[in-house]
Design brief:
Elements: H1 2-21, H2 36-46, H3 62-71, H4 96-106, H5 112-118
Helix pairs in contact: 1-4, 2-4
Length: about 120
């Protein structure tokens, strides 16, 4: 039964985080792929953190972006060659985890130490 519960939590997180926030999410292709933003959010939830997954269209401020890039993105498996946002390709958007965590930082729901400790 535990395996089933983990599967349901994964589905819910994919729906709440990836489907809602990530411009790169493809349900059919994304099985087993996870950016560092997703992993940090997942680990925060497993530690008992609760926060809203309400979508916002507010642009992240440059300080939140810079802080996440320096403290989270550098250890992401997509950082070196697969992240269009980091490579600044055209007007590429960050992943969903990055966006959600950025808003949580701006709203002081979490701090950068929370992110660093989960990566």
């Amino acid at each position: 039964m535990t395996g089933s519960s983990n599967f349901m939590n994964e589905i819910n997180l994919n729906e709440k985080l990836c489907l809602n926030f990530c411009p790169y999410y493809k349900p059919a292709k994304s099985k087993g792929l996870a950016c560092m933003g997703f992993l940090v959010v997942e680990r925060l939830i497993k530690q008992g953190r609760e926060f809203s997954f309400e979508k916002t269209y507010k642009t992240l401020d440059k300080m939140a972006e810079k802080t996440l890039v320096q403290n989270m993105c550098i250890v992401c498996p997509f950082y070196k060659s697969d992240c269009d946002f980091i490579q600044q390709k055209e007007k590429s958007l960050p992943c969903g985890g990055f966006t959600l965590l950025g808003h949580l930082l701006e709203e002081n729901v979490i701090n950068i130490d929370n992110v660093v400790n989960m990566r």
